[in-house]
């Protein structure tokens, strides 16, 4: 029998709903929610909004005031135990007189990992962990992957026709999917720490690779404010130094990191543009390690068939997101991804369908790699 009651589940659901509100803003921090309950009634709640601002527990404790004494805290991630920009939340809970703490999951951050819960038990506070763990993992998949593997969570986005084509033979590709799917892409970009693309795609399409409030889904506009949205870092593979300061990328003031194996003179580029120099060998994997070091939690990839294939081949894709438009483009149109090393059906990479959603006239499919 579970050690958790239906009431525990209800309050943790609420804490998780609160945590989800932070997912557009907290990077590089995790999204965390907290609910304080006393005598079956909620006396305080809160979520972490942005790095440098109070953690969820602190927000909930401030709201509860004196009522925190004797309360149970439901937290979506183990309370922190280290002095960062703010003092440890475990200590805050102890000082406020909370008597029990239930965490949805342990924090894999080596600075915390079990130490927060230990701090609580050392102070005589009852604690329990692993309630609605699956949902808690989902909310912070980027932060958790970076903490566990030192690399960001990679989401590869592709938009295609019913027959798996992404552009006409001429390269014409605007637009395969409808406005609602493109609006969904804006939402996905806004949740990401960084976007990844290539000079080939920038030269072909001259994209801005930014988050545009005007194109944000209407239902989210009531929940978030324009000034809350962050512009993700743009990471562009450009070994041949083909990106120029005149590209539209530079009209948005958020970092652009140009990746190559050799450095170039960046005179004429805005000061938010810098370069990442990496050896050619295993460049994509090395890039992910470097982005992990730079505290990038999630990467949203918008690119052509070449890089899409390379990332799949290198087993670097954590989630494949395909928008399917109800159009047929025919055999002369361009394909979805290049997998030149693949010769036998038995070796075809396999994917597990996790979500299926209709967005306007299009379908959004979300897959994770299967087996291996
Ligand atoms: N349907 C969609 O969702 C979608 C999205 C975006 C773009 N597109 C279309 O895609 C087309 C461009 O596609 P493309 O296939 O020519 O190019 P691409 O996939 O965008 O980029 C190819 C470039 O990626 C880099 N790259 C690939 N594999 C690599 C590896 N293993 N290691 C290091 N770098 C690697 C190289 O960049 P460098 O040599 O420059 O370093 C290579 O030249 C455009 O026409 C665009 O419209 C479609
Ligand atoms: Zn904390």
Automatic annotation (TrEMBL):
Q: Which cofactor does it need?
A: Zn(2+)
Q: In which pathway does it act?
A: Cofactor biosynthesis; riboflavin biosynthesis; 5-amino-6-(D-ribitylamino)uracil from GTP: step 2/4; Cofactor biosynthesis; riboflavin biosynthesis; 5-amino-6-(D-ribitylamino)uracil from GTP: step 3/4
Ranges for domain CMP/dCMP-type deaminase: 6-128
Entry cofactor note text? Binds 1 zinc ion.
Top-rank taxon? Bacteria
Catalysed reaction(s) here are: 2,5-diamino-6-hydroxy-4-(5-phosphoribosylamino)-pyrimidine + H2O + H(+) = 5-amino-6-(5-phospho-D-ribosylamino)uracil + NH4(+); 5-amino-6-(5-phospho-D-ribitylamino)uracil + NADP(+) = 5-amino-6-(5-phospho-D-ribosylamino)uracil + NADPH + H(+)
A single Pfam family, by name?
A: RibD_C
Q: Which UniProt keywords apply?
A: Hydrolase, Metal-binding, Multifunctional enzyme, NADP, Oxidoreductase, Riboflavin biosynthesis, Zinc
For this protein, the record's InterPro entries field holds: APOBEC/CMP_deaminase_Zn-bd (IPR016192), CMP_dCMP_dom (IPR002125), Cytidine_deaminase-like (IPR016193), DHFR-like_dom_sf (IPR024072), Eubact_RibD (IPR004794), RibD_C (IPR011549), RibDG_C (IPR002734), Riboflavin_Biosynth_HTPR (IPR050765)
* UniProt family annotation: In the N-terminal section; belongs to the cytidine and deoxycytidylate deaminase family.
Purpose = Converts 2,5-diamino-6-(ribosylamino)-4(3h)-pyrimidinone 5'-phosphate into 5-amino-6-(ribosylamino)-2,4(1h,3h)-pyrimidinedione 5'-phosphate.
Please report the name of this protein according to its UniProt entry.
Riboflavin biosynthesis protein RibD
**Naturally occurring in which organism (per UniProt):** Haemophilus quentini
UniProt lineage: Bacteria, Pseudomonadati, Pseudomonadota, Gammaproteobacteria, Pasteurellales
């Amino acid at each position: 029998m579970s050690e958790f009651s239906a009431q525990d589940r209800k309050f943790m659901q609420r804490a998780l709903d609160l945590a989800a509100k932070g997912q557009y803003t907290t990077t590089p921090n995790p999204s965390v929610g907290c609910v304080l309950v006393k005598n079956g009634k909620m006396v305080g709640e809160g979520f972490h909004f942005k790095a440098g601002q109070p953690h969820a527990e602190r927000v909930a404790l401030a709201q509860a005031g004196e009522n925190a004494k004797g309360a149970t805290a439901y937290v979506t991630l183990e309370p922190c135990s280290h002095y960062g920009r703010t003092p440890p939340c475990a200590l805050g809970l102890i000082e406020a007189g909370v008597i029990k703490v239930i965490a949805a999951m342990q924090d894999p951050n080596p600075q915390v990992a079990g130490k927060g819960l230990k701090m609580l038990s050392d102070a005589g506070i009852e604690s329990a962990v692993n309630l609605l763990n699956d949902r808690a993992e989902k909310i912070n998949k980027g932060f958790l992957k970076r903490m566990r593997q030192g690399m960001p969570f990679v989401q590869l986005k592709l938009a295609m026709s019913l027959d798996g084509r992404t552009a006409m033979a001429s390269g014409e590709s605007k637009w395969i999917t409808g406005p609602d799917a493109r609006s969904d892409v804006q939402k996905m970009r806004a949740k990401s720490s960084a976007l990844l693309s290539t000079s080939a795609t920038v030269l072909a399409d001259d994209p801005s690779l930014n988050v545009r409030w005007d194109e944000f889904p209407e239902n989210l506009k009531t929940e978030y404010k324009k000034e809350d949205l962050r512009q993700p870092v743009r990471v562009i593979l450009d070994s041949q130094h083909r990106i120029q300061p005149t590209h539209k990328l530079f009209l948005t003031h958020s970092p652009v990191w140009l990746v190559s194996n050799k450095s170039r003179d960046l005179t004429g580029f805005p000061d938010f543009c810098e370069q990442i120099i990496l050896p050619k060998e295993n460049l994509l994997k090395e890039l992910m390690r470097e982005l992990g070091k730079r505290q990038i939690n999630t990467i949203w990839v918008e690119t052509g068939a070449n890089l899409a294939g390379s990332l799949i081949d290198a087993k670097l894709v954590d989630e494949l997101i395909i928008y399917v438009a109800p159009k047929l483009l025919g055999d002369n149109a361009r394909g979805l991804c290049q997998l030149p090393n693949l010769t036998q059906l038995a070796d075809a990479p396999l994917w597990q369908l996790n979500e299926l959603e209709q967005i306007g006239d299009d379908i959004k499919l979300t897959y994770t790699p299967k087996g291996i």
